[in-house]
Design goal:
Order of helices and strands: EEHEEH
Strand order of the largest sheet: 1-2-4-3
Shape: elongated
GO molecular function: DNA binding; DNA-directed RNA polymerase activity; protein dimerization activity
Distance between the termini: 56 Å
CATH topology: Gyrase A, domain 2
Largest sheet: 4 strands, antiparallel
GO cellular component, one term: RNA polymerase I complex
Strand content: 15-25%
Radius of gyration: 18 Å
Subcellular location: Nucleus
InterPro entries: RBP11-like, RBP11-like_dimer, RNA_pol_Rpb11_13-16kDa_CS, RNAP_AC19, Rpo11-like
Number of strands: 4
CATH class: Alpha Beta
Keywords: DNA-directed RNA polymerase, Nucleus, Transcription
Number of domains: 1
Helix content: 40-55%
Structural class: alpha+beta
């Protein structure tokens, strides 16, 4: 599967609205988060993931859409996940800083 972390299975598929993406080195954490966010897109008909075998360190993510390309749906989902992760990190760091400040006052 080359050295790329993301490949498209059966890239010769004619319909851009149906694709299976293979993420190397990823598992349920990314799969479930992406599936959840991508399914919120009203143009997405189906989004699901599998881990083909526990001994294989890869994730298969299938996306089927009405109009937009599956690649665009994936990009949108990844951007939303990045934004959500950034927000969680910022909120956590603020809470830790506030906690430490209050501990210094005591």
């Amino acid at each position: 599967m080359e050295n790329r972390r993301l490949v498209v299975a059966r890239e010769d598929e004619q319909d851009d609205r149906m694709k299976t993406f293979i993420f190397k080195g990823e598992g349920h954490t990314l799969g479930n988060a992406l599936r959840t966010l991508i399914l919120k897109n009203p143009d997405v008909i189906f989004c699901g993931y599998t881990i083909p075998h526990p001994s294989e360190n890869k994730l298969h993510l299938r996306i089927e859409t009405k109009e937009m390309s599956a690649v665009d749906a994936l990009k949108e989902g990844l951007e939303q996940l990045q934004s959500l992760s950034d927000h969680v990190l910022e909120t956590f760091e603020t809470a830790v800083s506030d906690f430490k400040s209050k501990q210094m006052e005591v």
